[in-house]
């Protein structure tokens, strides 16, 4: 698909779905009140709206390489995920945050295999320094499962847990979770078999 195809898609959308839901769109024009935020990977195969059948206005989504949440950092850097999280939690007052991992994740694989180690920004370095958020999890996973398919699956799951732990380093998240106003969830969508596995306690179970 190229931009020309996207425009064709837009014309179809404008002539059908948009027409059918005109009222809903004019309602949405006055504001949004999604109840759940989803943090997913940028990977083209794992669009949360597609997987969950969500309509415009229903889920607040941030996507990045390997669906990661960095820890709370007050270091003068520009924090896209933290900004979106702050907006969703403190302004939109979402009730739930879901970290959605996925199978065959290239970002996770780059971390697992260290394929981008020692690269410069622009040559893989941006990705390398982003996915090094998983370095501690990687060590644990490699020791137990190696760097093959089992390790890949394990690191995809561990990565979700790391992001959930990092979410709790944001004071505005922690206080709401402890007050019962915000729930955090983790899940991994397999792609291969279309299975969603949801984090229950410490393990991922078929949904
Ligand atoms: Zn991915």
TrEMBL record:
<dbReference type="InterPro" id="IPR045066">
    <property type="entry name" value="Beta_CA_cladeB"/>
</dbReference>
<keyword id="KW-0479">Metal-binding</keyword>
<dbReference type="Pfam" id="PF00484">
    <property type="entry name" value="Pro_CA"/>
</dbReference>
<keyword id="KW-0862">Zinc</keyword>
<protein>
    <recommendedName>
        <fullName>Carbonic anhydrase</fullName>
        <ecNumber>4.2.1.1</ecNumber>
    </recommendedName>
</protein>
<comment type="function">
    <text>Reversible hydration of carbon dioxide.</text>
</comment>
<dbReference type="InterPro" id="IPR001765">
    <property type="entry name" value="Carbonic_anhydrase"/>
</dbReference>
<comment type="similarity">
    <text>Belongs to the beta-class carbonic anhydrase family.</text>
</comment>
<dbReference type="InterPro" id="IPR015892">
    <property type="entry name" value="Carbonic_anhydrase_CS"/>
</dbReference>
<dbReference type="InterPro" id="IPR036874">
    <property type="entry name" value="Carbonic_anhydrase_sf"/>
</dbReference>
<keyword id="KW-0456">Lyase</keyword>
